[in-house]
Amino acid sequence: MFLDPVARLRRFNRAVTRASGALETSFMGRGRPLGAARVLHLVRAEGTDVADIRAQLGLDSGLLSRFLRALEREHLIETKTDPTDRRRSIARLTQAGQAEVAAYLALIHDQSTDVLAKAGARADEVLAAMDLIATVLNRHQVDIRPADPDAPEALACQRAYFDEVVARVPAARPEHFPLPDPHSDSYRPPQGRFLIAWSDELPVACVALRALEDNTAEVKRLWVHASARGQGLSRRMMATIEAEARAMGHQRLRLDTNAALTEAIALYRATGWTDIAPYTTPPADVWMGKAL
Amino acid sequence: MFLDPVARLRRFNRAVTRASGALETSFMGRGRPLGAARVLHLVRAEGTDVADIRAQLGLDSGLLSRFLRALEREHLIETKTDPTDRRRSIARLTQAGQAEVAAYLALIHDQSTDVLAKAGARADEVLAAMDLIATVLNRHQVDIRPADPDAPEALACQRAYFDEVVARVPAARPEHFPLPDPHSDSYRPPQGRFLIAWSDELPVACVALRALEDNTAEVKRLWVHASARGQGLSRRMMATIEAEARAMGHQRLRLDTNAALTEAIALYRATGWTDIAPYTTPPADVWMGKAL
DNA sequence: CGGATTATCTGACTATGGTCAGGTAACATA
DNA sequence: TATGTTACCTGACCATAGTCAGATAATCCG
């Protein structure tokens, strides 16, 4: 409209580069060059494999070694050789190091709240915009990993799923979706599964599986974060959970859903699911099955 | 919800830093360090004041001088002393320099379309998210400058204003808003004004003023880009245009609007505007005036 | 006119991040 | 056990970006 897309992207880049330039200066603000500060951030109090740090930052081994010596001279970290492989070494934060990391985090926290304060009443919108952009940029680095269904992130995913259904399905009421029973094992191995898709630290999708009688399992709670829609992630989630079900020895899958959730139903139909007889009550009004 | 706001901001920062790290490497891809490339980008074929370049990049004069000498050795620019002030100097792109800049722009264009391709069907949403973030980060650097009402950006602002009114006011029809007459002088000095607010290259707001009889002027076409709302910009636009009207010698202002545009009306009431007798026809249904 | 200021240039210096070629000790394997 | 590989360290070197102190010429101003 006003600017062509490339110009808008460049404007965005300029704005962000300027803003995060200020953030980098803050790293210097604690009297330590950026490189050493980045290494310090990756050292945990329980100890971190030096090789892991090198891999994560993509550093030359010589350079990393120098950063570690510098941090050691400051008494922020200690290194010891790995007892299981005495070529390797393990870095650990000292008390002073933990305090220093905490100071960095406090600094980052302050600067972040400053940025969000700029957004004023629109902070939520700005955060959603940031989620969207980060998810799109990280598009090819979404990891699907099993999770405990009672883990805080898993509960958050399920709550987001319920909210979404309540918002979109006219017949759905919050009371249809009690918070999951914390002691139920139905989504937990060996009889069940709960998968979360992670985009760098943010859970962006979930799906659950639970065993029914007779070599049949049920797919439940397929949900994708607003920022991650339109990129084929729900298809990936379904393919993954179906493969899990197959590996567990199931021969049939089923699920219930609601006609208002049109994209989900379109996805199911496009991947071999067909309508079956009703087996649950409202708000469900569509029931589908698939042979594995 | 899932992550606290600070974690979400950091995730965003990581994603963007990684992505624009790739972009910076591309600058190096043409065999020239980033600093010299940034300087080259600011040199225009018609000539650019060296002092301007220094101010824009915040460079030390010694460093800039070295970058300019390096670019001169590559025959990409030529410098001559400013005839009006022979201490100053002016840099100009050579033919080869223009070609080199074009090559950079093509490179940036390719990389940008790659990024946007990642967004797939959601490219528009991603661009809107980028506009919002850039506008929020640039919040304190919005320049309000007079513009020609027939300039492309001014026309785009007016079109956006019309679209907004048509979308929000039930009684408004596109035919109520013909494209502005390109040869009308009513918004052009000396008798009128057209102001645009710029956030780094993007027009984010406009407002117009035209003289009526009897020391009265009319405020028209107050519009703020979606990404810039909620930050007091419309108030600033009104204050600026009112000051202009006062400086032009007007003693009264008036405007017409529609009851559906509630925030605008609230702003007018909060800044001293009061209801007056109708003076135009639908879709206007609210008329206000203010003594200067 | 004379002194202060300004714009640019030059050379010396520094910090940071990074590469590269060995070196050493530990480990893996034929 | 001999050989090759791996993880880390060290020292030498380099590129980039940046600072700082003059030098020079032009301009401004009282």
Task: Explain what the structure shows.
The structure is a homodimer of 292-residue chains. Chain A has 292 residues and is an alpha+beta fold. The first copy, chain A, is 46% helix and 20% strand. Chain A contains nine helices and ten strands. The first copy, chain A, has a seven-stranded mixed β-sheet, sandwiched between helices. Chain A has a three-stranded antiparallel β-sheet with strand order 1-3-2. The first copy, chain A, is globular, with a radius of gyration of 24 Å. Chain A starts with a helix and ends with a strand. At the A-B interface, helix 1, helix 5, helix 6 and helix 7 of A face helix 1, helix 5, helix 6 and helix 7 of B. The structure holds a DNA duplex (30 and 30 nucleotides).
Map the helices and strands:
2 copies of one chain form a homodimer.
Chain A: H1 5-28, H2 34-42, E1 48-49, H3 50-57, H4 61-73, E2 77-81, E3 89-93, H5 95-119, H6 123-137, E4 142-146, H7 152-168, E5 192-199, E6 202-211, E7 216-224, H8 233-247, E8 252-257, H9 262-270, E9 274-275, E10 286-291
Parallel strand pairs in A: 7-8
Antiparallel strand pairs in A: 1-3, 2-3, 4-5, 5-6, 6-7, 8-10, 9-10
Helix pairs in contact in A: 2-4
The first copy, chain A, binds a DNA duplex (30 and 30 nucleotides) through helix 3 and helix 4.
Please work out how many helical segments of chain A DSSP would assign: 9
Termini of chain A, distance in Å? 49 Å
Helical content class of chain A: 40-55%
**Uncertain stretches of chain A:** none
Number of strands of chain A: 10
Give the spatial strand order of the biggest sheet of chain A.
4-5-6-7-8-10-9
The rounded Rg of chain A comes to 24 Å
Subunit arrangement of the protein: homodimer
Q: Looking at the structure, what is the overall shape of chain A?
A: globular
The class by helix and strand makeup of chain A works out as: alpha+beta
Order of helices and strands of chain A: HHEHHEEHHEHEEEHEHEE
Strand fraction of chain A: 15-25%
Largest sheet of chain A: 7 strands, mixed
